[in-house]
C-alpha cells in the first residue's frame, strides 16, 4: 500500500487537492485501485458533494489521467450548475 508514514508529508498532501482542484487516491486505500475525484458546488459556492472515477492503476497511467480529469471536470460542472452554482469567473476557465 502507498500509505503516508510521515505526518508532515501527509499534511502537505492534504493541501494539494484544494490547490489543483481535484484529488487522487493512488492505491492508498485499496491496493490495485486508483480514484480521481472533483468537488461539486452548491448554489452557495460550497462543496457538499464530490464525484469520482475509480479503476485499475494502468488505466490512469501516463497522459491518460488528463483525459479522465477533463471528463470528470465537465461532469462536476454540469452537476454543480444543476444545483444552482454560478461561477463569476466562468469566462476565465480553461476550455471556454
Characterise this structure.
The chain is an alpha+beta fold and 96 residues long. The protein has one domain: GAF domain (Beta-Lactamase, 2-Layer Sandwich). The protein is built from two helices and three strands, in the order H-E-E-E-H. Strands 1-2-3 form a three-stranded antiparallel sheet. A hairpin with a 7-residue loop joins strand 1 and strand 2 (34-41). The longest helix is centred in the last third of the chain and has 19 residues, at 64-82. It holds the Pfam family IclR_C. InterPro entries: GAF-like_dom_sf (IPR029016), HTH_MetabolicPath_Reg (IPR050707), Tscrpt_reg_IclR_C (IPR014757). This is IclR family transcriptional regulator. One of its GO terms (biological process) is negative regulation of DNA-templated transcription.
Number of strands: 3
Unreliable spans are 91-96
| CATH architecture annotation name | 2-Layer Sandwich
Number of domain modules: 1
Largest sheet: 3 strands, antiparallel
Amino acid at each position: 500500500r502507498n500509505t503516508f508514514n510521515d505526518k508532515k508529508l501527509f499534511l502537505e498532501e492534504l493541501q494539494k487537492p484544494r490547490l489543483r482542484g481535484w484529488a487522487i487516491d493512488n492505491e492508498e486505500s485499496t491496493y490495485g485501485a486508483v480514484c480521481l475525484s472533483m468537488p461539486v458546488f452548491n448554489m452557495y459556492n460550497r462543496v457538499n458533494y464530490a464525484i469520482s472515477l475509480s479503476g485499475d492503476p494502468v488505466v490512469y497511467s501516463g497522459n491518460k489521467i488528463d483525459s479522465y480529469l477533463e471528463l470528470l471536470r465537465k461532469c462536476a460542472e454540469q452537476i454543480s450548475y444543476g444545483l444552482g452554482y454560478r461561477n463569476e469567473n466562468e469566462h476565465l476557465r480553461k476550455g471556454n
